[in-house]
Amino acid sequence: MDDLYNRLKTLCDKKGVSLAKMCSEAGIPKSTPTELKMGRTKTLSSSAMIKVANYFGVSVEYIAGKTDQKEKAPAAVSDEDVKVALFGGDTEVTDEMWHEVMNYAEFLKQKYGKS
Question: How high is the mean pLDDT of the chain?
Answer without folding.
Answer: 83
